[in-house]
C-alpha cells in the first residue's frame, strides 16, 4: 500500500490507485473529464494536471495516468498545474457553444463547474467555432454534438464497457465526431447511460428534455422496480411529476450504470391514465369514505361467513412494508387466505429459489463481474435482467469463460458458448458440463446463474446442487423487484392457486388485492375472471391502471416506489431501502383541461390538500383495521413497521435501521422446509406432451415487464407481437420469417408474425409476454402454427 | 565514399532480386543466420545505429528490450508511414531498392525472434508499396521468406500493409492500433510495445531506413560500418534530403554527421540564383528552425540537439529570403491541425488556436497581447500533450519566436506582412 503526500496531507491507497483517486480520498477533487471510475484512465483530456514535487515522477503530470507510489509529494494547487488546467479549459471552450441557458445539462455540467474551478473567464480565441450536424438517435437520447469536448467517455462506455457496435468515434482532429454511421435508434439496451457519462450536454435524456433544471428536482436515493436485480437509481421529480431517472452508484449491485428499461420505464408514474381517485362502485369518494366502505365490506363478510371468507393478495412488486401490512391485516382478521403473487407458477419458482440461496453461495450482481467461469441456465439476461448482461460482459472482458444453456437465441454483447437446450434438458446439460474435463475445479470464483422463468423446478434444484457440490457461487434471477421479500413473507403459506379455488367454491367472498393484478397476471385469464365475478366484493389498491383495478368495487390509489419509503429485497437477498422523492398527486402540469398544463401560470387555483394525493398502501390497511376496530400500533409509521418486522422474524433483524444509501442488509431464508415451494408443477405449469412445438411465454427488455409496459417511451421499443421458432422448424412447416401466423392450442388462438432464428433450440416456440398479446395462455403448451391472418 | 543504401539507385527502377543479390544483397542475412540472435543484437548495439525515424533511439538497445522470454507470437513492424512534410527518404529507398528493407526486416526479426513482420507503408506511397509487394513475392519464391529460411530453422512471414493515410499512423503505438484495425490513436505507455505491442504481444518497431541499414552492418561488421561516419562519435551513413529553392534538391547518402552547410551548399548545390538562405527546418516540419549562424552544425542527433533543434528525419527544408516565416509556420500548423488524431485536448484544440493566432498575425490584425497568448499556448501544449505529435507541431513556432521575433513583431506593428 503506497503512502504519498498530497497538499501536505499523507494518504495511503491500495496498490495501483492513480493519484487523482488518491487525492479524491483526501477530499480534493481535481477537475477531470476523460477519467471515469468505471471506464478507467486514458489521459485524453489532460485536465487533471498536478505538480509532482518529490518522488519517482517529477513536474506537472496528468494525475490520472500516474499510479500512486511511495514517497510521492504532490501539489494540486501549484501555479504551474493550475495554468495547465486553465489552458485546457480554454482550449475546450474555443469550440463549446455558449448555450448554457437552453442546455439541459446546465446546472449539472462538468464543463460549467470546471470552467469556474479552472479560472478561465475571458475568451481570447478569436476564431470561429467548429460546428457539427447532430444525429437522430431515437427517443431516449438527444444528441447535440456542438457541445462536445471529445472526452471519449461515450465511446468508451458504449463500445468498450457495454459492447455496443452501432455507435463510435468518427472523423479526426477537432472534427472528431461521436455517433452512429447514420441516424437511427441506438441499439444498445444501455444507451441511456450516455446521458450520465457525458460530462456536458451532448447526450441528454430526451424524455426529460426542457422539463426542469437539476436544482429544481426533488430527488431521493431509490431502487429500480423493473426487475429483481435492485439497481440503485435516483428519481427526480418536479411539481409532482416524475421526470427523470439517473443511475445511482451502488458498488455492491449495479456499479455505476443502469439499463434503459430502468431509466426510461418511469413514465407510468405521471402518465395520464394513472388511477388517482378513491372509488366505491365507480363513484369518486374521499379517502375516509373508501376506508369506511372497505371496512364495512370486510366486517360484514366476517360477521356473515367467518374470517375465512376474506382473502388478501400482496405483491412481488411492492415494498416489504406493504406486504408486511397485508400479513398483519390477515393476522388481525384471522384469515389464512393470504398469498403474495397472482402468478403462482412464477411465484412457486421464486420461492423455491429463495429457499435454496444461502449466505455462503449467494453472489451479488457485482460479484458476477469478478467471476472467471459462469454458467447461465435458462436465462436470457438482456431480456430478463438487463444489467446482468452488462456485468457478464465485464467478466468476459476480464477473461471469464461464459456458457449459456438456454433454448432462446440468446444475444449478449460479448463472445460466449451457447448451448440451445430445452428446459427439460437443463439439468442434464448442466451435469454434463460439471462432469466434463473442462469443468472448473472447485473454486469460489465460478458462478452458476439460473433463471426462474422458463426453467422447471428440476433445473432450479440442479443449479443449487451443482453450486454446492462444485463449491461455486449461485445467482438466481427472480420475477420482480421484491420477489425475494414476498417469498419470505409467504414462507410456506398458500399460493394464489389456493385462493383461486376458494373463490371458485364460493368460500371466499371478499378479495383485497394490493398492487396485484390477478386478471392480468394469472395465466388462465378466463378462470381468473370467472373467479373474480364469483366474489361479493373486490377491494384493490394500486398505482397502475390494471384490469383488476378496473373491476374493483372499492379502489384505493397507492404510491409508486419514488413516492414512498420502503424496502425491496433483490434477487441476491439484499434488502435495500428507498426513500420518498416527492409527494404523489396530480402533477401541476396535468391540472389543466384534458390533463394539459394549466392555462394560468402559475396556477391561480388553491387547494388545501395535494390534488389527487395518494398514500402508501399500508396506511389504507392500517385505517381499515382501525375502522373495523382492531388497533394496530405496528402499522403506525414506516419505522414501527420495520421494528415489527425485525421483532417478528429474526431474518429481518437488520431492516430496522436500514439506511437507503447503505450497502443494504443481506437476508437469507435460512434452512427452511417449505413443502409449498416443493409443490409439483400443476397442469398449468407442466409442459405438454404430444405433437407440435412447445411454446414458452418469455420476457423482453421492453414491453413485457408489468410496470414499464405502462410507460409510453419504453413501449416505443417493444416489438410487435410475434412468435419465434427455429428456422428449420419453420422450413418444415413451410413458413417464412415475417409471415403472419396463427398460433393455437386447444381452443386458444393468437395471431402474430413469425420470426425465425437459426440459433434457438428446435421443437420450441417463444412468444413474448406483451400486454394484450395473450402469450401467457399458451405458456408450456404444444402449439400448432399455421400461416395466414387470424 | 562507399554507397550502401543508395548503391542501386542508379538503376532507375526498383532493384530486382537478381540485381539486389548481384550487389551483395542477402549476404547480410546469410551472415546473421549463422550467428545467435543475441550476437546479432550485440553487433547492432556495437555499430551505434540509432533510429532513423527521427527520435534517434539506439536500435540495439530497443531490440534488447523486446520480451523474448514469454512465449510467442512476437512481431516486428517496419514503419514506412513517412508523412513528415519535407521528408522523402523512405520513399526513395523503397522505390529504388525494396529488398534492402526486406532483408533488414528478416535479420531484425531473427534477432528479436519475431515470427511475423509487417511493413506499414504510407497510403499515398502506392508505387513504393507495389515495389515492396513485388519484392516480397520474389523473396518468398527464393526462400528468403517463409518456413525454415535458408535451412536455418528460422521462419518468418512478411506482409505489406498500406496505411489508412494519416500522419498520426506513424506514431508507433498509433501505428499498432491502425494495424489492428482500430482508430490510429496513440496508446499510453506502459505497457511498452516491447512487452505488449501489436495485438498485445511483444513487438519491435523500427523505421524503414533503420532496418535497411541492418544488412550493411552485418556485411561490414559493427566497427566497419560505424567508421563510415563523418566524425568520431557518429555511426554509419545517413540519407539526407534537401528541398526548397536550392539548385540541386534531392536525396543524398552521406556520412552521418556531415555538416548542414555542406549538405545544402555542396550536395544541394546552394541557393538558386537571386535567392539567399534565410533559415531551414533540419529534419521535417516538426523540428525547430535553424538560423544561418548555426549552419556549421554536424547533422547528427546529439549535435543538432545541442543547438536547440533536432535532426529529425535529416531531410532539410530550406527557406529563402522571399519566404515569410510566419506564413511558413501557418502552413506547418495547417498540416498539424488537420492531421491531429483528436485524442488529447492540447493537440486537438490547442493547435487550431495557435494556427488562428498565426493567421491573424500574418493578416495584420493581431495585437501584441496575442503574441503572449501564442507563446503561452505553445509553452503549455509542448509538455502537456499525450504523444510527441503536438510538441513537434509547436516546436518550430517556439523557435520562430526565439529566432525571428523581430519579423513577427513587425507584422503586428505595421499591420501587414513585411515580405509579401
Strand arrangement across the biggest beta sheet of chain B:
3-2-1-4
Q: Going across the major beta sheet of chain A, what is the strand order?
A: 15-14-25-24-23-16-17
Spatial extent as radius of gyration of chain B? 22 Å
Given the helix and strand composition of chain A, which structural class is it?
A: alpha/beta
Number of helices of chain A: 23
What is the element string of chain B, with H for helices and E for strands?
Answer: HHHHEHHEHEHEHHEEHEHEHHHHH
Shape of chain B: globular
What is the percent of helical residues of chain A?
25-40%
Provide the gyration radius of chain A in Å.
Answer: 28 Å
Low-confidence stretches of chain B: none
Most extensive interface: A-B, 33 and 31 residues
**Shape type of chain A:** globular
Q: Can you give a write-up of this model?
A:
The complex is a heterodimer of chains A (790) and B (420). Chain A is of the alpha/beta class and 790 residues long. Chain A has 23 helices and 34 strands. In chain A, strand 1 (3-6) and strand 2 form a beta hairpin. In chain A, helix 7 crosses helix 20 (617-628). Chain B is 44% helix and 11% strand. In chain B, helix 7 (126-141) links the parallel strand 2 (116-121) and strand 3 (157-162). The longest helix of chain B has 19 residues, at 345-363. Classes of the chains: A alpha/beta (790), B alpha/beta (420). Chain A binds chain B through residues 42-47, 49, 59-60, 62, 65, 83-84, 87-88, 91-92, 94-95, 124-127, 149-150, 152, 169, 171-176, and chain B through 166, 168, 183, 188, 337-346, 348-350, 352-353, 356-357, 360, 370, 373, 376-377, 380, 383-386.
Amino acid at each position: 500500500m503506497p503512502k504519498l503526500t498530497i497538499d501536505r496531507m499523507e494518504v495511503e491507497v491500495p496498490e495501483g490507485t492513480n493519484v487523482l483517486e488518491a487525492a479524491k480520498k483526501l477530499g480534493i477533487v481535481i477537475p477531470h473529464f476523460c477519467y471515469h471510475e468505471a471506464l478507467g484512465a486514458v489521459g485524453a483530456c489532460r485536465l487533471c494536471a498536478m505538480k509532482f514535487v518529490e518522488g519517482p515522477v517529477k513536474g506537472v503530470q496528468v494525475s490520472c495516468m500516474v499510479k500512486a507510489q511511495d514517497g510521492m509529494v504532490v501539489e494540486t494547487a501549484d501555479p504551474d498545474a493550475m495554468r495547465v488546467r486553465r489552458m485546457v479549459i480554454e482550449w475546450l471552450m474555443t469550440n463549446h457553444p455558449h448555450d448554457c441557458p437552453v442546455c439541459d445539462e446546465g446546472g449539472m455540467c462538468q464543463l460549467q463547474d470546471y470552467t469556474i474551478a479552472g479560472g478561465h473567464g475571458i475568451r481570447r480565441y478569436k476564431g470561429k467555432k467548429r460546428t457539427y450536424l447532430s444525429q437522430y438517435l431515437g427517443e431516449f437520447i438527444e444528441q447535440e454534438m456542438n457541445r462536445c469536448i471529445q472526452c471519449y467517455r461515450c465511446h468508451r462506455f458504449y463500445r468498450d464497457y457495454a459492447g455496443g457496435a452501432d455507435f463510435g468515434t468518427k472523423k479526426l482532429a477537432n472534427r472528431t465526431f461521436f455517433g452512429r454511421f447514420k441516424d437511427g435508434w441506438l441499439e444498445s439496451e444501455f444507451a441511456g447511460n450516455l446521458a450520465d457519462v457525458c460530462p456536458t450536454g451532448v447526450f441528454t435524456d430526451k424524455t426529460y428534455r426542457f422539463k426542469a433544471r437539476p436544482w429544481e428536482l426533488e430527488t431521493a436515493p431509490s431502487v429500480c422496480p423493473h426487475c429483481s436485480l435492485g439497481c440503485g437509481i435516483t428519481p427526480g421529480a418536479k411539481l409532482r411529476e416524475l421526470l427523470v431517472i439517473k443511475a445511482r452508484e451502488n458498488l455492491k449491485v449495479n456499479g455505476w450504470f443502469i439499463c434503459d428499461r430502468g431509466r426510461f420505464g418511469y413514465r407510468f408514474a405521471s402518465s395520464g391514465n394513472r388511477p388517482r381517485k378513491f372509488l366505491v362502485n365507480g363513484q369518486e369518494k374521499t379517502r375516509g369514505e373508501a376506508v369506511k366502505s372497505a371496512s364495512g365490506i370486510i366486517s360484514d363478510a366476517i360477521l356473515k361467513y367467518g374470517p375465512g371468507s376474506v382473502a388478501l393478495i400482496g405483491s412481488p412488486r411492492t415494498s416489504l412494508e406493504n406486504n408486511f401490512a397485508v400479513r398483519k391485516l390477515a393476522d388481525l382478521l384471522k384469515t389464512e387466505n393470504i398469498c403474495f403473487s397472482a402468478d403462482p407458477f412464477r411465484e412457486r419458482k421464486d420461492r423455491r429459489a429463495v429457499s435454496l440461496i444461502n449466505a455462503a453461495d449467494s453472489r451479488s450482481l457485482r460479484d458476477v463481474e469478478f467471476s472467471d467461469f459462469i454458467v447461465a441456465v435458462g436465462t436470457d439476461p438482456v431480456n430478463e435482467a438487463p444489467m446482468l448482461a452488462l456485468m457478464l460482459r465485464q467478466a468476459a472482458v476480464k477473461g471469464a469463460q461464459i456458457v449459456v444453456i438456454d433454448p432462446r437465441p440468446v444475444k449478449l454483447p460479448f463472445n460466449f458458448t451457447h448451448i440451445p437446450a430445452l428446459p427439460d434438458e437443463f439439468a442434464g446439460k448442466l451435469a454434463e458440463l460439471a462432469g466434463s474435463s473442462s469443468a472448473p475445479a472447485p473454486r469460489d470464483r465460478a458462478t452458476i446463474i439460473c433463471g426462474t422463468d422458463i426453467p422447471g423446478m428440476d433445473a432450479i434444484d440442479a443449479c443449487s446442487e451443482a453450486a454446492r457440490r462444485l463449491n461455486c457461487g449461485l445467482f438466481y434471477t427472480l420475477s420482480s423487484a421484491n420477489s425475494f421479500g414476498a417469498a419470505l413473507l409467504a414462507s410456506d403459506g398458500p399460493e394464489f392457486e389456493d385462493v383461486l379455488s376458494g373463490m371458485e367454491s364460493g368460500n371466499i367472498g371478499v378479495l383485497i388485492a394490493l398492487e396485484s393484478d390477478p386478471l392480468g397476471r394469472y395465466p388462465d385469464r378466463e378462470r381468473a375472471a370467472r373467479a373474480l365475478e364469483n366474489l361479493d366484493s373486490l377491494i384493490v389498491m394500486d398505482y397502475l391502471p390494471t384490469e383488476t383495478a378496473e373491476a374493483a368495487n372499492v379502489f384505493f390509489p397507492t404510491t409508486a416506489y419514488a413516492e414512498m419509503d420502503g424496502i425491496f429485497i433483490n434477487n441476491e437477498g439484499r434488502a435495500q431501502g428507498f426513500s420518498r422523492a416527492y409527494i404523489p398527486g396530480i402533477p401541476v402540469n396535468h391540472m389543466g383541461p384534458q390533463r394539459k398544463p394549466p392555462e394560468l401560470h402559475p396556477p391561480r387555483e388553491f387547494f388545501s390538500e395535494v390534488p389527487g394525493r395518494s398514500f402508501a398502501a399500508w396506511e389504507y390497511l392500517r385505517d381499515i383495521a382501525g375502522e373495523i376496530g382492531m388497533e394496530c400500533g405496528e402499522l403506525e409509521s414506516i419505522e414501527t413497521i420495520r421494528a415489527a418486522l425485525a421483532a417478528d422474524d429474526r431474518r429481518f433483524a437488520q431492516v430496522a435501521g436500514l439506511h437507503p444509501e447503505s450497502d443494504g442488509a443481506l437476508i437469507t431464508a435460512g434452512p427452511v422446509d417449505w413443502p409449498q415451494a416443493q409443490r409439483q408443477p400443476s397442469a398449468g405449469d407442466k409442459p405438454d406432451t404430444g405433437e407440435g412445438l412447445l411454446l414458452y411465454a418469455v420476457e423482453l427488455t421492453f414491453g413485457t415487464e408489468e410496470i414499464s409496459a405502462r410507460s409510453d417511451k419504453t413501449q416505443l421499443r417493444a416489438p410487435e407481437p410475434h412468435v419465434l421458432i427455429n428456422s428449420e422448424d419453420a422450413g418444415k412447416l413451410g413458413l417464412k420469417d415475417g409471415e403472419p401466423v396463427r398460433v393455437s392450442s386447444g381452443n386458444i388462438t393468437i395471431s402474430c408474425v413469425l420470426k425465425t432464428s437459426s440459433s434457438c433450440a428446435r421443437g420450441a416456440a417463444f412468444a413474448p409476454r406483451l400486454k394484450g398479446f395473450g402469450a401467457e395462455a399458451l405458456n408450456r403448451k404444444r402449439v400448432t402454427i399455421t400461416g395466414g391472418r387470424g | 565514399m562507399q554507397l550502401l543504401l543508395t548503391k542501386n539507385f542508379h538503376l532507375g527502377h526498383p532493384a530486382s532480386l537478381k540485381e539486389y543479390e548481384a550487389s551483395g544483397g542477402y549476404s547480410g542475412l546469410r551472415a546473421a543466420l549463422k550467428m545467435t540472435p543475441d550476437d546479432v543484437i550485440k553487433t547492432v548495439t556495437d555499430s551505434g545505429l540509432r533510429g532513423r525515424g527521427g527520435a534517434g533511439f539506439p536500435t540495439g538497445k530497443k531490440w534488447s528490450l523486446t520480451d523474448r522470454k514469454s512465449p510467442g507470437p512476437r512481431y516486428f513492424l517496419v514503419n514506412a508511414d513517412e508523412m513528415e512534410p519535407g521528408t522523402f527518404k523512405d520513399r526513395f529507398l523503397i522505390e529504388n531498392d525494396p529488398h534492402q528493407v526486406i532483408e533488414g526486416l528478416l535479420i531484425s526479426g531473427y534477432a528479436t525472434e519475431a515470427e511475423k513482420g509487417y511493413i506499414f507503408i504510407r497510403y499515398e506511397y502506392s508505387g513504393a508499396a507495389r515495389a515492396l509487394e513485388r519484392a516480397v513475392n520474389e523473396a518468398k519464391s527464393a526462400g528468403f521468406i517463409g518456413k525454415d529460411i535458408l535451412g536455418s530453422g528460422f521462419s518468418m512471414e512478411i506482409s505489406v500493409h498500406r496505411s489508412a493515410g494519416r500522419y498520426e499512423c506513424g506514431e508507433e503505438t498509433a501505428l499498432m492500433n491502425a494495424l489492428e484495425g482500430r482508430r490510429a490513436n496513440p496508446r499510453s505507455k506502459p505497457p511498452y510495445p516491447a512487452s505488449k505491442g501489436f495485438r498485445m504481444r511483444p513487438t519491435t518497431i523500427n523505421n524503414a531506413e533503420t532496418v535497411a541499414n541492418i544488412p550493411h552492418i552485418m556485411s561490414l561488421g559493427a566497427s566497419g560500418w560505424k567508421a563510415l561516419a563523418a566524425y568520431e562519435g557518429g555511426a554509419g551513413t545517413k540519407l539526407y534530403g534537401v528541398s526548397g529553392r536550392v539548385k540541386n534538391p534531392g536525396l543524398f547518402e552521406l556520412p552521418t554527421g556531415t555538416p548542414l552547410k555542406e549538405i545544402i551548399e555542396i550536395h544541394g548545390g546552394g541557393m538558386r540564383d537571386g535567392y539567399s538562405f534565410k533559415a531551414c527546418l533540419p529534419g521535417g516540419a516538426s523540428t525547430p528552425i535553424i538560423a544561418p549562424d548555426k549552419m556549421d552544425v554536424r547533422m547528427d542527433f546529439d549535435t543538432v540537439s545541442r543547438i536547440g533543434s533536432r535532426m529529425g528525419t535529416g531531410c532539410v527544408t530550406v527557406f529563402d529570403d522571399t519566404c515569410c516565416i510566419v506564413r511558413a509556420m501557418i502552413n506547418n500548423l495547417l498540416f498539424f491541425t488537420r492531421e491531429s488524431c483528436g485524442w488529447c485536448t492540447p493537440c486537438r484544440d490547442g493547435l487550431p488556436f495557435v494556427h488562428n493566432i498565426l493567421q491573424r498575425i500574418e493578416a495584420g490584425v493581431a495585437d501584441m497581447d496575442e503574441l503572449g497568448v501564442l507563446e503561452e499556448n505553445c509553452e503549455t501544449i509542448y509538455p502537456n500533450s499525450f504523444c510527441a505529435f503536438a510538441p513537434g507541431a509547436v516546436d518550430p513556432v517556439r523557435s520562430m519566436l526565439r529566432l525571428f521575433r523581430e519579423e513577427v513583431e513587425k507584422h503586428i506593428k505595421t499591420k501587414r506582412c513585411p515580405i509579401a
